[in-house]
Amino acid sequence: MLVDCQKKGTMSVEEAGRLGGQKGGRRTAETHGREFYETIGHKGGQKVRRLVQQGKTYEDR
Question: If we measure between CA atoms, which residue out of 48, 28, 27 comes closest to residue 37?
């Protein structure tokens, strides 16, 4: 059974997720700063590099 969100006066799951993402992103930026984003960006890049290398190794077999 589908529930009409407007009858209850609540927001949809999509709206709640969007709002939470906006608030959460601002909060993280305020509490962690630029170095945090540089660090996680570097870690992500290293992970991608390892995965690409593993893919190439797997292809060569």
Answer: 28
The 8-class DSSP code of residue 3 comes to -
d(CA 3, CA 11): 12
Give the gyration radius of the chain's Cα atoms. 20
Q: What are phi and psi of 33, to 5 degrees?
A: 85, 180
Beta strands in the chain (DSSP E): none
pLDDT tens across the length of the chain (61 residues)? 455 545 566 888 888 888 777 777 788 888 888 899 999 999 999 999 999 999 998 888 7
Q: Which helix (H) or strand (E) holds 15?
A: helix 13-32
